[in-house]
Amino acid sequence: MRRVPLIMVVTSDLAGQVRGKGFPATERAERLEKGVGYTFTNHMIDCWGRIPATPWGPLGDLVLTPDPATGVEVDFGDGGAAERFMLGDLLHMDGAPWDCCLRHYLRDAVETLERETGLALVAAFEHEFHDGGMRDRPGDSYSLDKVRLAGAFPEAFLHALHAAGAEPETFLPEFGANQFEVTVKPAAGVAAADRAVVVREMARATAERLGRRVSFSPQVTADGPGNGVHIHMSFRDRQGRPAAHDPAGRHGVSAAMGSFVAGVLRRLPEIVAVTAPSAASYRRLKPRSWSSAFNNLGFRDREAAIRVCPVSDAPGADVAAAFNVEFRAGDAAASPYLQLGILVRAGLEGLREGLPPPEATSSDPDAMTDEERAAMGVVRLPESLGAALDALEAADGVRGLMPGALFDAYVMHKRGELAALDGLDDAAVRRRYAEVY
Q: CATH for 105-436?
């Protein structure tokens, strides 16, 4: 069968879904210049493909313009069509960025950070996901046998990531049944979120070719640990030198990174509605579940909202180059651009105000007294998406973190998503999210 290669130009939207339009590869040069048409309300499609509400109705035209630096072409060698897509930016008809383009939102955040502070953000997204197409063997947490049971998937997935330029680092069997984790190398700013999109799409593409399904949903099974997205962050200064580490700082954290972390943690009870944006997300964010239930900093603590990650203690190790902090109160129901963008903007508030580095908790915050938590500025994160959205809407100054039309559009989108779940029990909620993420 003869074919004309099809290239998709896509965007990550408010639902964390990847949507766009395609064109024949023969038109690549023209589409790089002109893009493809798009409309405002496309951004309001929820994760189940509905539009419960929109501030724009049928009005508003945009251009989705592909970024050639993000081109992906992966041939799986199975005789099927290759994966071909480019990530794009949503522009007004005059070429100006649209308020609600999430890739632009992140780009503006990291450029503002660098312009004001001289700090360049380096980040990496670490994904957990559930493979629904393999046999479950009880007791296979972290086991070699779990990888064996996954068959061809791990190696085909790694091939796809390499071919797509995502630079995979590790693939490992996780604690939960049929759960895996994949990590990729860090990248600067927007490129880190681009890689996160590629990771999710290559996992889905690989699974489809093997006749199986994967899900990045934050809660797939009632008794499982849930799937998180952990974002590792560090800084480079204007000379390209590592700037997140100071051996004299508390836990090795530099003053700049300490203020950045303080800004994020101060805002986290409000912005968790953006980083963990599904009803299923809050089944995962609970105490003693190796996720995050409080806005605390932890030193090598995998239940902290932000943890200071381990680095080598060997003599002569280049600690500064490897040093990073890990944000853990997020998942793949969020667009990586919106998720990282709001973290950068919250952290920048901390830098502007010179907030002191937070003190790391040394015990389970859930076991602390109210007075102990208050003394450290530690609070329980919202326990449902509805409560999280209430906190987001009530917060002072939070609209400055989501400027233009973005804040109102996001809240409207998420309120509509919640309304679609009215009357459903936990099992039905988990099932609906697992099907689409």
A: 3.30.590.10
